[in-house]
Give the backbone structure.
Amino acid sequence: MSRAEFVEGLRGGFTVAVASAPFAALFGALAVDNGMSLGELTLMSATVYAGASQMVGIELFGNNVQAWLIVASILAVNFRHVLYSAAIARYVRHFTPLQKFFTFFLLVDPQFAEMVKRGEEGKPVTFIWYLGFGIIIYVPWVLVSLLGGLLGSFIGDPKAIGLDILLPAYFLGIVLGFRNRDNFLPVAFVSAVASAIAYHYVGSPWHVSLGAAAGITLAALLPLPGALKPEPENEPHEV
Amino acid sequence: MEFDLQMVLVILASAVATYATRIGGYVLITTMKRIPPRMEAALNAVPAAVLTTIVAPAFFDGGWDSKLALVVALIVGLRVSHTWMLVAAWLVVMAWRRTIGF
């Protein structure tokens, strides 16, 4: 049973591993271009393990920005993970502390999206499934980063081979996967507009946190799905 | 494999910061006994809100090649699988750049 779940996880994560391989390679190539050594970029992929923020990081390394500012920027890009780990709490409560340690270490965007999807479909969200899904993404991510660093000089301009469009198209696909949720359209619309404005006037990477904050605030303020037919306990003053 | 001490320290500090975000929400929410409904509504909106902010600048700030590619990917994504979205976006961008230019 648990072996079947591990294999199921491996299968699910494989698609993500293939889709993220170009970005791992691109990260490696750009990291070398920005003055990182092969060892350093591999260490970064293995310990930070967060694509978008690794890209932000090397961009800042290349521009000689102060260390604390680089760490703060990476924190800003990854701040969404606070929300992810809060949102998956209901699925991981029964995990052992060691399992939780690895669960949170591997908690990247597609891993989160897939875990929530699986949980909402009513399928069992076991640690062994999660580990299979995570490890098949993690190991290639680290290895292909190194490979990208090695082959960096051959890639040339990523735009010439159309690599730059894959990351946004990939994230767009994940967004679409949530389109049946309550308030999806208003939330996505407000987040999109707010992040575009923040991108212009505040700058990257703050557009991620600011845009997301706008969408999430809207969701908290919009009428709740059950609010149309208030139940007696919601209005105790009338009793 | 060479390592610059300062670079390694920045990378490890970034790793610790990232790990803190990945466990922080869980720590916060387990200290609360019950999740208020509005907070739950907010949590449900997290994936769409966050991931949209990663796509939006590519659309608003990208060239017409990127804008068209993302619109086509959106239409394709509403009908078929995500892998085909990537293929569609890539084909549009490459076709645009080969014919019209960058």
Q: What stands out?
A: Chain B has a mean pLDDT of 89. Chain B touches chain A through 73 residues (CB under 8 Å). Residues 5-30 of chain B form the longest helix (26 residues).
